[in-house]
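Morning!

This is the sequence you dropped in the shared folder:
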Amino acid sequence: MPLLLLFILVPMAEIALFIQVGDRIGLGWTLAIVILTAFIGTALVRNQGLAVWQRANQAMAENRMPLEEVFTGLCLLVAGVLLLTPGFLTDTIGFLLLIPPVRSFLGRGMWDLLKARGSVRYTHIHTSQDFHGPGAGPRGDGGTDRQGPVIDGDYHEVDNDKRDPQ
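The structure's back. Tokens below.
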């Protein structure tokens, strides 16, 4: 229901803004502004998107989860859609999503909300690249919470008395 309400109210607000702005500056300038914001927004989204793509690849190469980069990419996707949608309200929200401090604020809020709901569980698994042998635990003080690296796998039990001769 809230999504349906959003799909009704946003176009109504956009139409009202078009009428107000068009009445003040004229139809030609109103259309020029809408087209110009679409071009500028597309260029900004493309540039920031490429930078986020590079940071995500670097994070994965460093064996880190690119959580911030994924959220930033999602914000840029939404910003791109909003900036290509004709309207002043959608353009304003789209341009706000292109500002890194705004994305950071939204990301922290989203993360806190997900943690409060219990929807997020984050675990760091030691790999061969970041495990430095016995005594090199996550506390960094020589203590360890695990005995060696975590290896994910499947197994089946073999009874030595009932093995197939091969």
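Headline: The first helix runs from residue 2 to 25.

More detail when I'm at my desk.
O.
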